[in-house]
Amino acid sequence: IVRPPRSWDSARGAVYEHVVAADDLLPTLCAAARAHIPDDVTGRDLLPALLPGAGPLHDFVHGQIEAQHM
Predict the structure, then answer these.
(1) Which residues pair with 69 in a beta bridge?
(2) Tell me, what's the pLDDT at 49?
(3) Which of 2, 10, 56, 64 has the greatest count of CB atoms below 10 A from its CB?
(4) Is residue 45 within 8 Å of residue 26, measured between CB atoms?
(5) What does the DSSP 8-state code read for residue 48?
(6) Got the DSSP string for 11-47?
(7) What b-and-e string marks burial along 1-12, b requiring 16 or more CB atoms within 10 Å of the CB?
């Protein structure tokens, strides 16, 4: 759940139905703060997903809990 500032040009109440991952949070926060996104960060900036008509950012995501793959 994201609530962007009113000053952003985003679709209020929109639902983004594509897959995102927890490692997308750091690059998104960096982009929102207009800070450099470190080169070794694996996630993607989610800010484009807040715009109307946004497509998928990932083809797939990988998750792992202890030794079990999801």
Answers:
(1) 64
(2) 80
(3) 10
(4) no
(5) G
(6) -TT----S---GGGHHHHHHHHTTPPPPTT--S---G
(7) eeeeeeeeebee
Q: Which two tokens stand for residue 37?
A: 């996104």
Q: C-alpha dihedral over 18, 22, 46, 1, to 10 degrees?
A: 70
| pLDDT tens-digit map of 19-58 | 888 888 899 899 989 999 999 998 889 888 877 777 778 7
- Judged by DSSP in three states, 50 sits in helix
Alpha-carbon gap, residue 6 to 12, rounded angstroms:
9
pLDDT of residue 39: 92
> How many angstroms separate the CA atoms of 26 and 41, rounded?
8
Q: What is the pLDDT of residue 8?
A: 67
